[in-house]
UniProtKB/TrEMBL annotation:
InterPro entries: PbH1 (IPR006626), Pectin_lyas_fold (IPR012334), Pectin_lyase_fold/virulence (IPR011050), RHGA/B-epi-like_pectate_lyase (IPR024535). Residues 30-269 form the Rhamnogalacturonase A/B/Epimerase-like pectate lyase domain. Pfam families: Pect-lyase_RHGA_epim. Coiled coil: none annotated. SUPFAM superfamilies: Pectin lyase-like. It comes from Metabacillus arenae. It comes from the Bacteria. This is Rhamnogalacturonase A/B/Epimerase-like pectate lyase domain-containing protein.
C-alpha cells in the first residue's frame, strides 16, 4: 500500500512537471450550473455543458454534485481542466463517445462517466492530442448502441488514437464494458477497457503513454474481452502499464500487438472456474481464461507482476512471434481448481515456420500449478533462463 501511494504521488507530480499546470492568476473556475445545467438526472444538460466547455480554454470547468444527462458527445479542447465533486455524466442516447478530447494541456479528473449501456465509448483521445491527464475517474457501463451504424463496432471505456503523445491515465476505475454484438468484418465479440489503436493506416504511433494505479474489471465476453489492448503500430510506442489491478477480464488482462511496452507491478486475478465460455469460437472451453498477458510484438518487458486466480489460464504469459522479451521477477500461479490440466505458465510460440525468435530473458520468476513451466515450439537464439522457482510443475520445456 505504501509503495502504491508513493508511486501515485510520483505520477501526479510527474504530470504537473510534464504538463504545464492550467492554474494561473487569471484562471477562472466555470460552474456548469451557471450555464444552465441542472444536474438532476432528468433534464438534458448537453447544450449547457458544451457552452461552458467552449469558454473553458485556460479555465477550469467544475461539475457540482449531481447527475448530468447528455444526449450528444462533449468536446474538450486545448488548455482545459474538467473536474467534479460527486458528479456523474450519464449518456442518454446512442453515442459513439461521451467525451471527445482533441488538443493539448487537458485534464479530466474526479468524474463518473457512465455510458448507461447506450454509449460505445467513454473518453476518446484524438490524433495530435498531447499532454492529457485522465485521473481519478469512474468510467463504466459501455456496450454497442442500438443504432445500426454503431451496433457492430468495438466497445471500449477509453480509446486512444495514433499520433498522440504524453498521455497519463492514472487512478481510474473502469468497469462493465461488454460487447453484445459481433464486430463487423470479424464476427466475434470484442470489448476493451482501454484500447490504443490507429484510426487509419497512416496515423503514426503514439508516444509516452502511461496507464497506472487503475482498476479494470468486468470486460467481456470471453471471445475477445481484454482489459488493455495496444495494436496496429510498427514503431515503438513507449507504453508503460504500471501497478494496475485486473479482475473479470474475460479473455485476458493485457494484449500487446505493438512494440515498446513495459508491464510492471500489476495484479491480475482469474475469477473464473468452469463458468466462462466462448460464443463465436469453436466450443473449446478447457481453459478458464486464455491468458493473463499476451505479447505479440517485440521489445516487451514483463516484470514484478502478481498473477493468480481460481481457475486455470491456457497459458499465463502468452508470447507469440516476438523477440527481445524480458520476463523477470513475476509470481505466476494457476488456481488449484483449474479446468485445463494441460496448461503452461509461460508459452513461447511461433506460427511462422522459418522464423527464429531471439533475445529472451526469463529470470527469477515463481511458476506454480501447470503441466509446463516454460513451453516453446520455436527455435530461440540467445535464450537465458535462470533461477526460476517451480512448484507443482510436471515438465519444463
Amino acid at each position: 500500500m505504501v509503495k502504491r501511494i508513493i508511486f501515485s504521488f510520483f505520477v501526479i507530480v510527474a504530470s504537473f512537471y510534464i504538463f504545464p499546470t492550467l492554474l494561473t492568476d487569471e484562471t477562472i473556475v466555470i460552474n456548469v450550473k451557471n450555464y444552465g445545467a441542472k444536474g438532476d438526472g432528468v433534464s438534458d444538460d448537453t447544450a449547457a455543458i458544451q457552452s461552458a466547455l467552449k469558454d473553458g480554454a485556460d479555465n477550469k470547468i467544475y461539475f457540482p454534485e449531481g447527475e448530468y444527462k447528455i444526449s450528444k458527445e462533449l468536446h474538450i479542447s486545448d488548455n482545459t481542466e474538467v473536474y467534479g465533486s460527486n458528479a456523474k455524466i450519464n449518456a442518454s442516447a446512442d453515442l459513439i463517445t461521451v467525451m471527445r478530447v482533441k488538443g493539448s494541456n487537458i485534464i479530466i479528473r474526479n468524474l463518473t462517466v457512465n455510458g448507461k449501456k447506450t454509449a460505445l465509448r467513454g473518453i476518446t483521445i484524438e490524433e495530435s492530442s498531447s499532454r492529457v491527464v485522465i485521473s481519478e475517474n469512474v468510467i463504466q457501463n459501455f456496450t454497442q448502441p442500438e443504432a445500426r451504424s454503431l451496433s457492430r463496432l468495438t466497445v471500449s471505456a477509453i480509446r486512444v488514437k495514433g499520433g498522440t503523445k504524453n498521455i497519463i491515465m492514472d487512478q481510474n476505475y473502469i468497469e462493465n464494458v461488454m460487447a453484445r454484438n459481433p464486430v463487423k468484418g470479424w464476427g466475434h465479440y470484442v470489448a476493451r477497457g482501454i484500447l490504443i489503436r490507429p484510426d487509419s493506416s497512416n496515423q503514426p504511433a503514439p508516444k509516452n503513454i502511461t496507464i497506472s494505479n487503475s482498476s479494470i474489471t468486468n470486460i467481456g465476453p470471453k471471445d475477445d474481452g481484454d482489459g488493455i489492448v495496444v495494436q496496429g503500430f510498427k514503431d515503438k510506442i513507449n507504453l508503460k502499464i504500471l501497478n494496475n489491478s485486473f479482475s473479470y477480464t474475460y479473455k485476458r488482462a493485457i494484449k500487446i500487438q505493438s512494440p515498446g511496452v513495459l508491464i510492471k507491478g500489476n495484479k491480475i486475478y482469474n475469477n473464473f472456474y468452469q463458468n466462462n465460455f466462448y460464443t463465436t469460437y469453436p466450443n473449446n472451453n478447457l481453459h478458464d481464461m486464455w491468458s493473463a498477458i499476451s505479447i505479440y510484438a517485440d521489445h516487451s518487458t514483463i516484470v514484478d507482476n502478481t498473477i493468480t486466480g481460481v481457475g486455470h489460464y491456457g497459458r499465463i504469459i502468452d508470447v507469440a512471434n516476438a523477440s527481445h522479451i524480458k520476463i523477470i521477477k513475476n509470481h505466476l500461479k494457476n488456481g488449484h481448481k483449474g479446468t485445463d490440466k494441460n496448461t503452461s505458465i509461460i508459452a513461447i510460440t511461433s506460427n511462422h515456420s522459418n522464423d527464429v525468435l531471439k533475445d529472451y530473458t526469463i529470470l527469477d520468476n515463481t511458476l506454480i500449478n501447470a503441466k509446463y513451466g516454460i513451453y516453446t515450439n520455436s527455435d530461440i537464439t540467445d535464450l537465458n533462463v535462470w533461477n526460476n522457482k517451480q512448484v507443482n510443475i510436471n515438465k519444463n520445456f
